Amino acid sequence: MTAPAFSIPARLQDTVRCWASDRGQAWLEALPGLAAEYLARWELTLERVCEPGGQISLVLLVRRADGSPAALKLGYPDPEGEQEHRALAHWDGHGAVRMYACAPEDRAMLLERAQGEVSLRSLPENKAMLEALGTLRRLWVAPPEAHPFTSVADYVGGLRAELTRRRSLPAAAELTPLVDEALDLSATLLQDTAAREENLLLHGDYHHGNVLAAERSPWLAIDPKPLVGERAYDLAWLAQDRLETLAGSPGPEAAARRRVQRLAADAAVDPERLRGWTLFRVVEAGLWSLDVGDTRHASLFLEFAAML
């Protein structure tokens, strides 16, 4: 089988090598052959590579046998994306791109093509937040019976263990009070969650860059890292969007608090739960970024956490 001639986007190469080292390099080297296999299996014609594409996935713009446009996604086999195909199948195009075919063993999916170059980041912030919340509400549905999705409680339990480990990083020496607050808040939230009945399918990685313009619907979500749990956890990642713009605005602390309050009111969630989950998620992301040497994003995440 002849591998198609294309270049793997630089962002994908850099991210996978940084996050996954030797295993990531082996996956990158196998990508052209894997792409050739699924182009042939699903009778697809390659148009071009989506640039800059995903951080941990290769997206090829293709045509199906009937000439209709689609996108072939080949994802790196990380645990967070293991159930992406099941979430997309359950949504069946309701708020998210539709899935036409999948091969979970290779993290291969044939998807409805959206406009990859036009995300909610192209809109002014207030308009983008309004559209984002409208799309997210469509994704918050009951999961199927006997579903395979990880609960927020179990997933956060793993994150808390990693955050506790990273608390001792030399670069985090001055962050101990902030990390301890994030750990305490998440413990309280998890205890409260055990008594709550909100048990919805969540996107898990919802932000403006993961909502694209499309023909079938004005905006559709992509790239879920699905979990099951409460809406405030999902909304928390949206609350931290556009941190560079927020940090450069007049009165960023007040603006950060207003954003959380406004999102909580618009989504009808408890503002303190949203603030708590937002703080936990950005502190966890900040220390993860420190751990992998991404000091620019670490600084943004942790600065935002301090504002909350």
Automatic annotation (TrEMBL):
Record Gene3D superfamilies: Transferase(Phosphotransferase) domain 1 (1.10.510.10)
Pfam families (UniProt xref): APH_6_hur
Signal sequence residues: none
Record keywords, A-Z: Kinase, Transferase
GO annotation (BP), single: secondary metabolic process
Gene Ontology MF annotations: kinase activity; phosphotransferase activity, alcohol group as acceptor
Protein's UniProt name: Kinase
Organism: Streptacidiphilus pinicola
